[in-house]
């Protein structure tokens, strides 16, 4: 079952705890960030909007980094959809970084090879897939969630529905469609 992340930017306070936990748990050297919190802004002064976004590898269904790698150093695990980099095969060419829309693969300074979020599956430090990822576990606001995409989609629908219900005005009709009941659980 495909694993992944859900992130709620409304909850992120840009404390960087997720970055630190990721580096610490996976023993990532100084330099690469497998998870990075960035501030995204839009608009022009005085009408600026901004939000914090914690970015990591999205373990894409059709991973562009995988198809860009000329030496097949990147693979997608069939059992959980986690996209992994084989350090023994990687030649550090950077094609995967150019192909990735999330800038997830990053070149290490010591080995000169690409690495990225591996969903806390670093050899010898593997976290069972059913447990929270290191970044999720330390997030003080609960902005990061991990799990199966089907479960994350269901939780996301519930979160949006509760926000819509809270924003409803007295006497104004609202419409909510229970997609899971009508169309199935998804995933």
Fold and architecture overview:
It is built from six helices and eight strands. The chain is an alpha+beta fold. The chain has a single domain, classed as Alpha-Beta Plaits. Strands 1-8 form a two-stranded antiparallel ribbon. The model has no long low-confidence stretch (mean pLDDT 88).
CATH topology title: Alpha-Beta Plaits
Radius of gyration: 19 Å
Coarse shape: globular
**What's the number of structural domains?**
1
The fraction of residues assigned to DSSP E strands is 15-25%
At CATH level 2, the architecture is 2-Layer Sandwich
| Average predicted confidence as pLDDT | 88
Please count the helical segments.
6
Q: Roughly how much helix do the residues carry, as a percent range? A: 25-40%
What gap, in angstroms, lies between the N and C termini? 8 Å
